[in-house]
Amino acid sequence: MIAIQSTLIEKAQSGDENAFYELLEPLQAQLYRIAFVYARNEDDAVDIFQQSVIRAYEGLPKLKEPKYFSTWLTRIVINCSKSYIEKNKRIELIDPNKFDNYEANSPSYVDEQLDLWQALSRLEEKYTTVLVLRYYQDLAVKEIALILDCPEGTVKTNIRRGLQALRRQLKGAYIDEWVQSIEGSD
């Protein structure tokens, strides 16, 4: 798999668009979700994702370590998201209908998810980023540290502080249970 990916990256670095899109395909949903967390609406998330793909394609010849392709691409999406939000300075609330795809149909589940997303959006960006990467993208602390180009200890601290900030914001029982279950899994 790594050899195939290295070959595809070499082809893409030489200008083969098909190879680039073959590399991008399995990562699209994950990268879009990251953009959506920042943008909080579909149109902006699509714009961010498209900008990220363009930047990645243009910057691909500079990628030195093919094994870090997904990490590198994730960092590009995060940076494009931050730039886009800063440039547009818009805050959009998440439409409750966005959560129709969740497996649980209970209205209280949707309410809990909306509360959680809104609380995440009110956190400092560094906490939002690590929590999204850790618990929504299911990345390990080591991977997050690579993406954010910071020490693992900083990532762990930001996860812990982010969870504490969520707990303060969402003082209800369901968030306490969620945070305890997350803290127990680390």
Automatic annotation (TrEMBL):
Superkingdom of origin organism: Bacteria
Keywords: Sigma factor, Transcription, Transcription regulation
Coiled coil location: none
Protein's UniProt keywords contain Repeat: no
Pfam family of the protein (one): Sigma70_r4_2
Keyword Transcription regulation: yes
Residue span, RNA polymerase sigma-70 region domain: 24-90
Domain RNA polymerase sigma factor 70 region 4 type: 115-166
Entry's family note: Belongs to the sigma-70 factor family. ECF subfamily.
Official protein name in the record: Sigma-70 family RNA polymerase sigma factor
Originating species: Sporosarcina koreensis
Top-level taxonomy: Bacteria, Bacillati, Bacillota, Bacilli, Bacillales
